[in-house]
């Protein structure tokens, strides 16, 4: 009799767990956040989703606390991957957190497989003042540049069903050189040492680089002498 009671209790608990699971699945299917997919969304747009509620702002705070929403910065969110079912694009988030901007420098070099080390900061270039943001996805750093330099060598890339702005390999390396605290500007040998030892850059890839992009960066940006040496390296 005791074994029967224990088995009955176990069965009831199992049924309750299944009902909760099914209920959660049902809620996920009807959750209006799902249609936001993996695109960053403003608090104003989220409030419109729950405008029938007395306090949409309170609902947003509850969804963030519950983990369904990830706050990228004040007033900007992205739906959690577990809920959306789509991988979050940190590059797209970087574009939205602070713009106009494009991802570049070490993040882009790693993305293209030009440097071996993992990168833990999403690095970008912007026409606004330099800023750094931190959130659940990590650290996002932005470097300021002039509009005429900003427009050179920027392309669009698709990832996880969304498109984001990213530097071409040539522009990413130019940005790395321009914004690094120390880069030699006199000797090609010194530049080669910087690429090999400091960046551990795949110099074999330079054969496929477009020198016109680097020349335009040299004409419109800083560290002209270094970038001109880079063009000479490509032509060797």
Can you put this structure into words, describing what you see?
By secondary structure, the chain is an alpha+beta fold. It folds into 3 domains: 83 residues, no CATH class; 77 residues, no CATH class; 63 residues, no CATH class. It has 11 helices and 9 strands. The protein has a 4-stranded mixed sheet with strand order 4-5-7-6, sandwiched between helices. α6 packs antiparallel against α8 and α10 runs antiparallel to α11. The longest helix is centred in the N-terminal third of the chain and has 29 residues. The N and C termini lie far apart (88 Å). 31% of the residues are buried. About 11% of the residues have low confidence.
Topology, element by element:
Layout lengths: L1 H29 L10 E2 H7 L6 H11 L2 E5 L2 E4 L1 H4 L5 H8 L3 E3 L1 H7 L9 E6 L4 E5 L2 E7 L2 H4 L3 E6 L2 E6 L1 H11 L8 H12 L11 H10 L3 H11 L2
Parallel strand pairs: 5-7
Antiparallel strand pairs: 1-3, 2-3, 4-5, 6-7, 8-9
Helix pairs in contact: 2-3, 6-8, 10-11
